[in-house]
Amino acid sequence: MTSQKRAFENRVGKLKNQHAALRKGKAVGVPKNRIGTSSHPNMGLGLPITSLVLIVVAFVLFKAYAFAQMGPQDYEARLEDMRSDNMLGQAGAFLFQADYVTEALSTFFVPSAPAPAEPALQEPPIELAENDGLENDGPENSIPEDDSPAEEIEAEE
Length: 157
Prior knowledge:
Distance between the termini: 129 Å
Largest sheet: 2 strands, antiparallel
């Protein structure tokens, strides 16, 4: 009886361990052979490293864009204003201080200034001299001012 009791207590202990593992997130599955198995999911740190890297890269790119848009003098002036603020402003100034990476990446961001307006293409006015060297021999070379085709069309209607 003692061996049966020990075997029973071993099975009860295993069940208690399984229940404790289930409370911690262990998954239980039943494969095709119908024997229950459990596996512990890979929890990691809770926040994937790729997310942290993407956040840092986005922050550095934003900092470089702001540096390119403001220019070095205005950027430093704003940081000086932040440094004179409270502790949160000082922490922000520390994070936003211009470093080598910020300055190097800011060369890729060209400040977006409006393009200068191109002057409209205009033909220079044609200046007609009174006498261009052509002689007005008679009525065949002159243009009648009074009889224009537009007036004839209007008169017909």
